[in-house]
Amino acid sequence: MKPRNRPGKNGAPLTLARHRGVRGPSLALLLLCFSIAVIGLPLAGSIVQTMTAVTQLLRIQIDENNMLLARSIAREAGVFLESYFGALAALVSEPERQETQSLITAFPAFASLMIVDPTGRVRFSSGSDRETGYDVSQQDYFKAAASGRPYLSLSSLSERNYHPTAYLSLSYPGGIAVGELDLQVLSDHIARLSLRSGDIVAIADAGGTLVAHSDGARVERSENIALVPEVIDSLASGQVAARDADFEGRRVLLSAAQVPGFDWTAIVAEPAAKLDAAIARIRGSLLVETIGMATIIFLAALSALTYVRKDIDGLLARLQAIELGDYSLPAKKPAFREFRVIALDFGNMAEAVRDREARLSESLGQKEILIREVHHRVKNNLQLVESLLSLEMRRRDDRGPDSSLKRASARIRALASIHEMLYLSEDLARLRFDEYLRSLARALVSLPTLHIETERLNLDIDRAIPCGLIANELITNALKYGSRGEGESPEISIGLSVSERIASLEISDDGPGLPPDFDPSWCVTLGMHLVLSLVRQIEGSWHLSSDGGARWTIRFPV
After folding, report:
1. Domain containing 454: what range?
2. Of 265, 489, 527, 551, whose CB count within 10 A is highest?
3. What is the rounded CA–CA span in Å between residue 10 and residue 413?
4. Contacts of 99 (CB under 8 A, 6+ apart)
5. pTM reported for the whole predicted model
């Protein structure tokens, strides 16, 4: 069956463009948002967890490295102090000048050595600041050693070289051995460590005074860190601590370890800004990777949705084709199985509609034949009646213009012409009234003075029959009364126009016109009564003027 090209509102064929005005949520947009939510939200959560875990691992790694370095420095400081206490114990066993000089040579951190008797008098001194017989009984190192335990004093700056120094003292049966320890060697050792820029390594004595520092100037100033809470906690607990702290005027990651056997503390601090920068780099890298992954996911989802959209558009096009009467199967199958099932159902539906249309078309064809046959038989019957009236007119010899039989015959002929045109036309429901009017006028008036101007007008049979009878009566009246004198042919004008769904039928002649007081409503003739009744039947209006002849104007909706 040939596809129908059914027009839309503006006369153009229906296309998919008409769906653009349909309001409502977009399935494609919903699927895209759902895909992004299903994939993107877990991905975002995973990225946040990854960043948190990486940050924690990085912090743990930094803390572990710093704590390991703090333990190592504390252990080395402990070994350093133990070795010098051991050297002092060796001096106690052999307090000879020659042995003292060898100890100073072997242990260069000894600035001086002294042997003090039980009363606090110096018996021997390797330095020049303590002469033999000098009383040191009031010094802390003598009082502590006299109690029988080794003693390590708080640090102080040496007046000789402004190096940090501390006193070691150890008692023995014959007196007390005292060693002045130059702690600059510890700062020199720290300076030899491979430290990163900004890192801090320091050693503080029991009072919190710096005895060694990666920045030697702080030692020279005898800075004290005892008020730093993290250092206080470390000194109190004796444990290795790793925490955030405000140290030396900046935020650092501080690790502290107590020197084994002594109340000294080894400190390692790394600026928190380094951790922040490392975290920022990791976050930047993760952000770039996230954007890349999100872009890939978005493009993949968009690509999948593009195929979905194509399948949906294909189904809409299939529905449009079915609506326009094209029931052929599409050449391209949908990409997704679900849409293929729908397309298959559309095909089954189209096949069913095509079979139903074929049956309806066959039934409609049969009905059209029956209707044509009815119109044909009505026309034949009307012509038979017209022939009977013509025979009756001959028998009565009643052929004048006022003959009632002749006027009835003309009316029947007008009806017969309508049925004849209907069964000959393709559209059995509507009549080309402009063509019918021309045919009727030429059948009634065979004069050269007939003028016809019409516009195309289609009328259904319910309006075509009343309008045909009205035209027949008015043309007959114009032919009968439109002549100005005997022997003159009337000039008859017929016009048909359509404007804004209102049809206007005008029939006029150039005769003497009608009397001024003529009112068709009071006319008792059958023809005039018929005209007014038929105008009311078609819901129309009439107007009659006698300026230069009679002019009838009939207006009715179409």
Report:
1. 433-558
2. 265
3. 40
4. 90, 91
5. 0.49
